[in-house]
Amino acid sequence: MSGLPDHLRRPPRGMRDWLPPQFYALKHMEDVLSRVAESFGYRRVEMPVVEHFEVLAKKAGQEVINEIYYFKDKAGRDLGLRFDMTVPVARALSYSLDVPRPVRWYYFTKVFRYDEPQHGRYREFYQFGIELVGSSTPRADAEVLHVLADSLSAAGAVDYVVKINDRRAVDKMLEALGLSAYRDVIYRALDKKLKLPREEVVAVMTSGGVPRDKAEKIYDMTSEMPLQEAADHLTRLDQSLGAHYAKLVKYLDASTGLGGFRFDMSIVRGLDYYTGIVFEAFAGEYKLAVGGGGRYDDLLELYSGIKTPALGFAIGVERLMEAVGLHNVEKPLDYYIYIFDDEAYPQAVAVAKKLRSAGFSVAVELGEKSLKEAFEYILKIGTRYLIIIGKKELERGVVKIRDLQKREEYEKPINEL
Ligand code: AMP
């Protein structure tokens, strides 16, 4: 067969096409998640897919920088595709200084990462997320976690688990162990704790110069615990941190209950810009994180020069859809109008117009198919009603309607439609 070779018929590596049933599943997710964000007073934003490379690279960390789709435009500008929405939002707020604080914004849009594609890991994917900018209180932390929890429930992941940690706690622990100089390699090792066996995690640390006994100690000290125990645990590391978490636990208990939350000191997250609370969300049996987020109190200052506390989360939409088994949403056609010849065409479009203005979807036969062929076609695409306007019907001012769901047929005067 001629035409394009197979690999060119498929989208570029790590990307996908969204045909109507998949697109409507995505759209359903968008509607459900947007409703949650809107209900908390968050307002939607969109930013360019293309961003200044310098803005993207500012606080991403080398691992993320390596994943940026980088290019020069025809004028030689260094540009890149956004790898998340937090960075463009922070840039937009750096000149939108008159937007009253706290700012509550959300997005549902595409981001890009030049990563090695595998199950649940794409190069182009959708993120839904919120940013709460201008507050450093434990109530702000609780609100973002509340929106995250409600988003996961609304999407059908009622058995979610959000694992919470705080980078300040990890830093305090490293300080106490005299290991602050090894922060980067220890973060990298902890980030792998949910994916790799103990030996390998310890090996990441020792290969970075951390003494073996201390690497093992860190591994054991960063275990998971109920969120209720976090405040006491953190108070031992730092008084004010403990007090912050005592409040956070109280607020979360009042808003969502604590059932879906755990404290886990191995959660550190990959991006360099986090400064405080960090968390990752899991849904049921699905192995990969469906969402993550945290506090990034220094990021906005890098762009605007003004110190501005902020936090947010992002949900990986494809992963969440996979986790809750939402793949296809069929959208049947409401009416298909069949006519035998051009004589009935004015009548057909008049009927179609009437039905469309009443909110129905209507397609008119293009004039190539027999009634039998048209019937087979509309069964395949999914159709509720077939309207037939023949010579006899035309003369009598009626249409024949076949209800394909109830398998009934009846006539109706055109002016009663
Ligand atoms: P991150 O801020 O990198 O943790 O991203 C937030 C969420 O986006 C993650 O929890 C994932 O659900 C999702 N995500 C991240 N990277 C990818 C990817 N390459 N493909 C699909 N989803 C991703």
Word description of this protein:
- The chain contains 17 helices and 17 strands.
- With about 425 residues, the chain is α+β, with helices and mostly antiparallel strands.
- It folds into two domains: about 5-325, Bira Bifunctional Protein, Domain 2 (BirA Bifunctional Protein, domain 2, 2-Layer Sandwich); about 335-415, Rossmann fold (3-Layer(aba) Sandwich).
- The strands form three sheets. The chain has a nine-stranded mixed beta sheet with strand order 1-5-6-12-11-10-7-9-8. The protein has a five-stranded mixed beta sheet with strand order 14-13-15-16-17, sandwiched between helices.
- The model has no long low-confidence stretch (mean pLDDT about 95).
- Adenosine monophosphate (AMP) binds near residues 84 and 318.
- Adenosine monophosphate binds next to strand 6, strand 11, strand 12 and helix 14.
